[in-house]
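Record passed on underneath.
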Amino acid sequence: MASLNKLAIRGIRSFDDKQISVIEFFSPVTVIVGHNGSGKTTIIECLKYATTGDQPPNTRGGAFVHDPKMANEKEVKAQVKLRFDAANGQRMLAVRNLSVTVKKNGAMTMKTLESILALADKTGGREGKRGVISTKCAEMDTEIPHLLGVSKAVLENVIFCHQEDSYWPLSEPSTLKKKFDDIFEATKYSKALDSIKALRKDRVAELKVEKERLDGLSREKARADKLNNRKSDLNCTIAAKEIEYEELKKQYELLVKANQKFYDSATKFREIYLKVEDLTKQRARYQEELDETRETLQELDGSDEELADRMKNFDAHIARQKQKQLSENSKLQAIEDDLKSARETHVKLSIDQGEYLAEEKSQEQRIKDCEGLIREISAKHQIKGYDVSPLGRDKTLDFISLLGDLLQRQHKETDRLQEEANGHTDEYNRNSRQLQMNLDRLKQERATLHDRVTSLQEKIHNTEIEVEAAQALTAELRTLKADMEEIEHRIKKSREEIEKAKYDEHLAEKNTKAKNLELKREVLNAELSKTSAQAEARARLDLKKTELKGKSAEVKNILNVNSARFRKLVGSEAQPETMEQELDRVFSRKERECVDLEKQSAAANQSLQVAQTELTNLRRELKQFCDIGKNDGAHGIFKHFLQVGQVKRNCPLCSRDMDVSELATFEKTSSPEATARFQSELTEWEQCLRDLQSLTTYSVSSSKLRSEVPMLIAKVEEKEEELPILIGKAEELQERLNFMKRELKDMSNLRQQATVVSRTQRDVERLEREIKDLERTLSDAGSLKSVQDIERELDSVVGELRANDRERQNLMTERDRQMSAVRTHENELHGMQLRHSELNSRLRDRSALERRIEDMRQDITSANARIKELDGKIIEAQAPIDQLEEQYHLSHRELTSRLAEAQQASQALNADSDRLQMNHKQVERYIRDKRHLRLKECEARINEYEERIQDLSLRAEAARQVISLIEKEINESGASMANLRANIRVRRLLRDIAATEAEINSFDMEEAARAKRIFQEKYQFEKQKETELQSKYAHVGGELSSFKSQVQQLDNDLQEFKSINKKYRDQLVKVKMSDMANNDLEKYAKALDSAIMKYHALKMEEVNDTMRHLWNKTYQGTDIDGIKISSDSEGGPSKRTYNYRVVMTKDQVEMDMRGRCSAGQKMLASIIIRLALADSFGQNCGILALDEPTNALDTENIDALAASLVDIINERKNHANFQLIIITHDENFLRKLGQSDVMEYYWRVSRDSRQKSVIERNRFG
């Protein structure tokens, strides 16, 4: 527990600013006494300021600090220094500094200077830790209550309550509520509970949004699954079409190759010319590249194979070097890591070595200290044989055993003396009691006789007065009779007024009305109970109505936003019930139209592609025929010349007529003379004949071309005319298809909104059904009214009931007042009647009174004689008592002195033995733990790690050198590689030039100039077959392209749903986790609320039990049986608060104490409440300060308060750090406390000659 040690004050209020006043706080009680205005309360203010940082009320502007004008200074610095023991056992020091400065205009300004919170010891903590905890006032204001183990509210309102605020338990309700909330820390927990509830509310709203998002993702996932299924079907169709397409493609390509082979056989010479031209250009390019490369070349020796081998292995070599570099780097890193680890271990071992050396030195010092203690103790207690050095372990153990025996003998001697003193005291008490009993008996008899004499004298005096007064009894009787008649008249008049007022009838009416209102209240309470039991259903009803309102607003908002688009796409107004069905119907129709358009567009594209393919084929055939026609020209001219010459018998060139002979010569000469001349020409003409015969096919083809080329041209023109029509149709269909797709996309987006509307509409219908069911359930249960409505009706009924009770109470009060007046008059009349009888009796008993006076005087005479006799016996009985007491004091002082000497010797032996035992235990623990062996092991490991560090350093340096050489070789590899590549390139270019030249020379240009054989007849058939196969191939390709475009469109559509499965799964997990988190938050809120309620109830019960116990023990009056704090819960289960009031009980009836009790009762109640609160909320802090607790208390209650405080002190003085601080100006109260042996010293605060407050410690007694 926390406790206060010392308080130093300088410059606070009336305390001097030049010197420090110190007060030490005792346990269990510290009493501070002084006159009013001496500065007692300033001590409480300083304690409160030091612990909480709060200055006393009404001290703004420097009133808390010593006035600079009184000190004749421009600036006064003040300081409050408090040393206390924290709840954790540490001794702390808190220092707060203030200064007040006087300005030129006379105004004062106060500043808070730097403050300090630190450990109280000079070293600032063990092992060199920092001693100062904080120098900031805000941190100190938070940290000091934490160190004291209580909240700041408990320090301000319970422990260090200012005298001006001492009546706060009986203050107005708002102030009382705030203070109790601070003490119970209700605000902190209420804020935590509100935060949890607000967080859960936000998370519920977020969960609702997340669920909506999950529904949207679910719809998107379904859409994506539908698209994926459609895509899968299309992919299957595409796979089948691709197989068919590939087969047709292979057939077509084989046929094209075959036809191309036929074509190439006739046009190969053109390829030869082109190839020779390309080779010539290639040779020039090679030469130019060779020249450019040789400009920056450094030629290398060696064959091409050697250079290629070098080139081939260069990268592998560099790669091996880089791999080697990485390997060396990893080795170097491993070595450096080992080196770092070894150095860290070496540092740790060095630290351990230092610790072991320090422990070894400490062990040696402890052994020396132990030997010094043994020599000191042996010399002190005259034990011989231990003044040598060094002492062995066995010698030390023997000495400790010997010292223990000596201590045991000393304890026995002390116990014997104590028993002897106790026996002597018991004998004295027996004898003293016997003698005192005899003396008390005589004194009691004397006191009885004395009281009897006094009583008889009073009776004689009174009887003489009665005898003297009996002479005036006749006149008094006449007066009394007249008064009796007047009282009888008043009684009669009052009874008539009571009968006229008819109080009983009015009260009966009020009672009937009260019963009816009570019955109504019971009905409302029952209805409230049922309604409270149905709170969950009603809460669900309110929640459903709110949700219905939100859903309806959401539907309306979506319809307002999308109504124009809906009318455009559907052609009618959007209705929430049919919106989704209408869109699905229109979407299905549009989707079918889109599919039809896609088919039409695919067919149009296919037709267009077929037409384009056919047109391309026709143009290619036409071009081929034109090329063939060019090759057949010589054959046609020759044939034309021959035919013209044979028919017209003239030369077609010169138009010269030929006769038969010339014609024969023209055709063929066969004369012997010409044979020799034409023999040489024959060979040439035979060769020419063979060449011309090879042109026969071309001649045939030429005849065909004359008929086929016009047909082909006509077909090309026809296809060219059809092509724009097909293109326009395809574009129109594509445009319609795109428009339809845009409409479908807009409709798809609108369908999502329609799905939200439909789902929300279904939610609205479901909520309406649920609301009707809940309302029907609540109606069946009895009422549809809410708890608030019933509570308002109940409050109204209670108000009427209270008003009726007030009226009934007023009637009863008025009736009781009048009846009381009647009874008063009757009592007066009865008293007068008794007085009348008494006066008559006294007149009759006058002579009897005179005889009684004479008898009483004789009794007084005999009693006085007996008193004198008893006085002599009392003097004789007092002598042996005084003699016995004197003998007892002499012997008791002697025994006490011997006992004190024995106890002092025992204490000295105990202290020496404890010091020696503590030192010897530390020595033995060092030997038992073998700490000296650990030092040697540590030194061996340090040497081992030093050798390892040196070895690792050498290995690391060697690895760095190897890495440097490898890096140098890798860095210079680029230039070598470039030159090697250039040499290989030059040699390759030379070879390419030579090869190109050889290839050019290899072509036979004369042979290439000759025409190739004419195509076989089957070329046209194969060409036609190629065209048909191409058309079929193109048709399948168009279908395949259409399907792939659909797949592409589906892929584009699926891009909108990318990662939809993952998003849906993540969202589902998120929703489930959020739902679970919300449920946990609800459980946490309920658990916290329940814990707060339980804590509050337990604390209130604990506080009220303590208050009841202290009140019954302290309060001496009979008008109040007890007091307690009543806490009324408000706000319902969702936001519960408490209103507090202090009530007093009398005969099981509770009444508010505020405004109904005296000043003394208020003071006593406030003290008891603070004691109870300190007992309950200050379990870690046993401090409580009471400032002027006897104010407004009478003598009996002051004595009772002192007795109660003494009981509390005696009960708790054995508790750790219990401290009660009492400030009072009541010397009698101080004396009561001092006589109870609860304190030895007290502090007195007074003013010196300079009117400065000073604190002095005084011994009581």
